[in-house]
Amino acid sequence: MEKVKRKRRVDRKHIIYQLTNSVNGNTYVGLTVMVGQGVWKAVKLRFLRHASKARTTEIGRSLLNEIRNFGEEAFLIEVLEVVRGKVNAHAREREIIAELGPVLNDQ
User: Comparing C-alpha atoms, which of 90, 84, 107 is closest to residue 31?
Assistant: First the structure.
């Protein structure tokens, strides 16, 4: 019997989150997908990927520089919204970035 290729899901839940540097108040708004884990775990894993990239690369993005300069422990993680669907989530993330004006989001 031939294996049937499953259609990729496009209605997954996405989490819009904010990282705040507790030392200087600078913020970053990001988006991650929730795949088989809870909201908090998905956001925490995403932050750990940011931190890993800050440690292992020399990419000059504002958030990565901030993590390098102040350390991972300086950041507070906050879930702003959970949105179903990739298109809706990306649109809402852009709206939130426009509203909040986070300084660590490289434009």
Answer: 90
pLDDT in tens, 16-43: 999 999 999 999 999 999 988 899 999 9
Instruction: Determine, yes or no, domain membership for 5.
Output: no
Query: 71: domain range?
Result: 35-107
Whether residue 55 has pLDDT greater than 90: yes
Determine, yes or no, domain membership for 103: yes
**At residue 81, what is the residue type?**
E
> Number of structural domains, the chain?
1
CB 30 within 8 A of CB 81: no
Does residue 99 sit within a domain?
yes
Alpha helices (H) along 6-70? 39-56, 62-70
Rounded CA-CA distance 68/18 in Å is 18
